[in-house]
Design a protein that fits this description.
- This protein has 639 residues and is an alpha+beta fold.
- Among the domains are: 83-92 and 142-335, Beta-galactosidase, Chain A, domain 5; 369-594, no CATH class.
- It is 44% helix and 24% strand.
- It is built from 15 helices and 20 strands.
- The strands form 3 sheets. Strands 5, 6, 7, 8, 9, 10, 11, 12, 13, 14, 15, 16, 17 and 18 form a 14-stranded antiparallel sheet that branches. A 4-stranded antiparallel sheet has the order 1-2-3-4, with no helix packed on it.
- Strand 8 (173-180) and strand 9 form a beta hairpin.
- It is elongated and about 115 Å long.
């Protein structure tokens, strides 16, 4: 290797070392991470021990057939639980609060939301029961308490009582779950508020004189939040694709863990919300202040499990044990519906916006902008008319086609011009052999300029169509409005519409054949055939023809697992394109196009060349002269 190569390697190494040095964590960050890790180890050990003792106490009480422990057992309970001994035993079960949209069950054990149902939705294959986001051990929310006698307790091993439950005339519900101690007027409340007709549940942690029992230096509380995501849809592959753990930092930046593999992240920055989501529904935990020193994990279940993924979060929240200030959270338990999520930012200052609508994947930046500015408003408008979802997609396709119609017409006319110029192009190719490629290109460009044809004009429609096609590609598979909507043979447009299934998976294809996808592929082949009829039949086009016919077959493999609504959209779009192409053929006559081009050429021929055109032509002549001289010099050297 020469000197420059060695210098390049050294510079790269210096950049890598410098980048690593600048991005290494500070001493404070390392200490915080170690503290969190050590705390996790201690808490996990204490949880295991507390759980073991709690089970022993329960077993002994059941064996003695009494709720009053013996003197020895009471002493053991007092030793382990200290002032929280009254909460060591309690009632198993759930207490329910609900509104028009959600029904939640709050567990006496741990005082947590242990069940969440969405009344307006149902899981695939279940036409009776409301869709259940989680229940029982599928989700846990646990807080760690440090007592003033150096005990570590967790709320999941303590029993709460329902101190108060009310529902006002407007349908707003309130539930107070109380964690009692053996000291009068010293307790911890979890206050749940469920507004009427809303998916957002308020949760307020309100200590009352807890400085008498908790460690005096306890200014924050550790929270562990775990949840297993059950499969709710027919298409597991795509539900897994869209199921992920997302979170937003204070300030608005949104990040996520990998949806394709097990992943974890330690974040020292303040986090506003954490979302456990699948394809169409989310459980979001929002801190009114912020989560701090957050550790998040995501893992995958195997393909035969009823669950898709498991999410775990360990974080810290500020806690005023005197009760002068509460620690407030919010739960969003609902659908990934763009307008529903966006509405939570209405009439909210910019710095306080939640941006929950970002949970709906709408594609890359320009594609997402098209979805937000065009596709979603148009979809909402047509849906508000009470039309069937199939008609809505049909109308959207028609509007999109009308918007880009002028560009498509200009492209087709440009193609017609290129077609009628083919005899003259053949003459140029015959006159200038391949070894005189520069002269051939100059002659070709001169012909295009004279005829007023731009070879790039045919790309304009695709330039405008492609972002819209991609916008629909992102929008339709994640539009919850398609979920459960039927069209012809498809009973759910949000997933594939299999007409044939088999047991052994075919590589890159799966275990089924989707009918809308098959019809879309057939129509795509027909459109390709119509398009290729307009192309020349030279030897150089044979490979292009094969490639053009191969693309629809590739789409069959690619879209077979996608939402039937998306394949239906592409089918309708291709069908309209074929009709549009046939109309263009009937209205655009090649002879008239040629006559128009010749007339334009005569007009241009009478015009004096502009200064730029004259200079460009002079430069081309100079380049040709230099090329001829270099060729002569080369021939002399060879002699």
């Amino acid at each position: 290797m020469d000197k420059n190569t060695w210098i390049g390697f050294l510079l790269i190494a210096a950049i890598i070392v410098g980048f690593s040095f600048l991005n290494r964590p500070s001493e404070e960050e390392l200490a915080e991470r170690q503290r969190v890790q050590d705390s996790l180890i201690v808490v996990q050990a204490q949880e295991v021990e507390a759980q073991r003792i709690s089970e022993q106490i329960t077993a002994k009480l059941q064996a003695e057939q009494t709720t009053t422990p013996s003197e020895d057992l009471a002493l053991q309970v007092a030793t382990i639980y200290g002032p929280f001994a009254p909460a060591a035993q309690g009632t198993e079960g759930l207490i329910t609060i609900e509104n028009e949209k959600v029904r939640i069950g709050v567990s006496y054990r741990g005082g947590r939301i242990a069940k969440a149902q969405l009344k307006e939705y149902k899981a695939y294959g279940d036409s009776v029961n409301p869709l259940c986001l989680f229940q029982n051990d599928e989700s846990s929310l646990n807080f760690t308490l440090y007592t003033n006698n150096n005990r570590v307790l967790t709320t999941q091993n303590l029993y709460f009582t329902a101190a108060e439950q009310t529902t006002d005339s407007s349908g707003n519900s309130t539930l107070i779950m109380r964690l009692n101690t053996n000291i009068e007027d010293c307790y911890l409340d979890f206050v749940y508020t469920l507004p009427a007709n809303d998916y957002m549940v308020g949760m307020s942690i309100q200590p009352h004189n807890m400085q008498w029992v908790l460690a005096q230096n306890m200014s924050s509380v550790q929270m562990q939040w775990n949840q297993s995501i059950p499969q709710q849809e027919k298409g597991r592959k795509f539900e897994e694709k869209y199921a992920q753990l997302q979170y937003m930092f204070v300030g608005g930046d949104i990040d996520k863990l990998s949806e394709a593999k097990a992943d974890h992240e330690n974040e020292s920055a303040r986090i506003k919300w954490i979302a456990y989501k699948d394809q169409f529904f989310s459980t979001v935990l929002i801190a009114e202040d912020a989560f701090e020193s957050t550790n998040m994990e995501s893992s995958l279940f195997n393909q035969h499990s009823h669950y898709l993924k498991e999410y775990k979060t360990t974080t810290f929240l500020p806690l005023d044990i005197t009760g002068k200030k509460s620690t407030d959270l919010r739960y969003y338990l609902g659908p990934n519906h763009y307008n529903t999520l966006k509405a939570y930012d209405n009439d909210v200052e910019k710095s306080e916006k939640l941006h929950l609508n970002e949970l709906v994947p709408l594609g890359w930046k320009i594609v997402a902008w098209i979805n937000k500015a065009l596709v979603i408003p148009m979809f909402d408008l047509f849906s508000s008319w009470g039309l069937h979802i199939g008609i809505v997609i049909l109308l959207m396709t028609l509007v999109i086609k009308l918007i880009i119609l002028p560009f498509v017409f200009a492209s087709y006319k440009s193609s017609a011009k290129m077609r009628v110029l083919k005899p003259q192009l053949d003459e140029i190719n015959a006159k200038y052999p391949p070894e005189k490629m520069q002269e051939r290109q100059q002659a070709t460009m001169a012909l295009y300029q004279k005829a007023g044809v731009s070879p790039m004009s045919g790309c304009l429609p695709m330039l405008f169509q492609f972002p819209v096609l991609m916008a629909m590609f992102w929008f339709l598979p994640t539009a919850i409005e398609l979920r459960g909507q039927s069209l012809f043979w498809a009973d759910d447009l949000s997933t594939y519409d299999a007409i044939i299934t088999w047991d052994t998976p075919i590589p890159l294809f799966g275990t089924h054949l989707s009918l809308f996808c098959l019809i879309m592929t057939v129509v795509n082949i027909i459109y390709t055939h119509i398009t290729m009829q307009q192309q020349s039949g030279g030897q150089e086009m044979k490979m292009m023809r094969w490639m053009m016919y191969l693309m629809p077959l590739m789409f069959l493999f690619f879209f077979n697992d996608y939402a039937a609504g998306l394949s239906y959209y592409y089918f309708v779009s291709l069908l309209m394109t074929i009709i549009q192409t046939m109309i263009f053929r009937w209205t655009i006559n090649d002879k008239k196009v040629l006559a128009e081009m010749e007339a334009n050429a005569k007009k241009k021929g009478t015009k004096k060349k502009s200064g730029f055109a004259a200079r460009l032509e002079a430069m081309q002549r100079e380049q040709q002269r230099i090329a001829r001289e270099q060729a002569k010099e080369q021939q002399k050297k060879m002699r």
